[in-house]
Design goal:
Rossmann fold; alpha/beta; globular; two-stranded antiparallel sheet; 35% helix; binds zinc ion; five-stranded parallel beta sheet; single chain; 9 helices
Length: 236
């Protein structure tokens, strides 16, 4: 065996020690991103609002007649569509929590595999919805960037960071829709490089879509031609 191959194997072995293949939710060894038990808790996104992905009432057969939800009819968001492979809950919610709050940076690439489960974007580039620089320093990494890098491999679309978060907005959790919208309004600035581009925003979870809407609006203000959104999970 050549020395370089030995070194390569040793390096892979060391990586295995640091990041052995484990379930992203319960740490069961040998399976990624989820073990069989945890994978059973994943709920694919049901057909719903064709704009924001809000799950619809199955009794209305939305597949036959896609209908925008009440929010999108009353106040269309600045993005053309937002979708996700799964509903936010079960093992996926647990794994996203670990990625964001338990310093499990390694789960970014593992979870990004799940983007295979949703429609490929019709965009020129992927743009992560960024953390505020202060929060990035605290966390040490930006989970949306990790997910975008993983999604870039799946969708074969490059990552181009086009946004900065100019205001630290704090947690959206616990705020209602109107409060979320107020809280993130004007929180982002788009790069002039966005001019003329079709951009797909990438983030971990979409809840009301307020953050995605503020980010999309910043890109449109910077001259982006079109914005769509992909997240790992959609709030039910
Ligand atoms: Zn598991
Ligand atoms: Zn909608």
């Amino acid at each position: 065996m050549s020395i370089s191959l030995q070194l390569q194997r040793a390096a892979i072995g060391a990586l295995d020690l640091i990041f052995p293949v484990r379930c992203a939710s319960c740490d069961a060894p040998g399976e990624s991103p989820f073990c069989g038990v945890c994978a059973d808790t994943l709920v694919p996104l049901a057909p719903g609002c064709p704009v924001c992905g809000e799950p619809g009432d199955e009794a209305l057969l939305p597949l036959l007649k896609p209908r925008r939800c009440q929010h999108c009819r009353e106040k269309p968001p600045p993005f053309v569509m937002a979708t996700a492979p799964y509903l936010h809950g079960g093992a996926l919610a647990e794994a996203i929590h670990r990625l964001k709050y338990e310093r499990r940076e390694d789960l970014g690439p593992a979870l990004a595999v799940l983007f295979e489960g949703c429609a490929g974007p019709r965009s020129d580039c992927l743009c992560p919805i960024p953390l505020h620089p202060r929060r990035l320093r605290q966390r040490g990494y930006d989970q949306a960037r990790l997910l975008a890098d993983g999604a870039a491999k799946r969708f074969r679309i490059p990552v181009v960071p086009l946004l900065t978060r100019v205001r630290d907005t704090g947690q959206q959790v616990g705020r209602d829709r109107a409060a979320r919208e107020r809280n993130v309004r004007g929180a982002f600035a788009g790069s002039e490089k966005a001019h003329g581009l079709r951009v797909c925003l990438v983030d971990d979870v979409l809840t009301t879509g307020a953050t995605a809407a503020a980010a999309a609006q910043a890109l449109l203000n910077a001259g982006a031609a079109r914005v769509e959104v992909r997240t790992l999970a959609r709030a039910p």
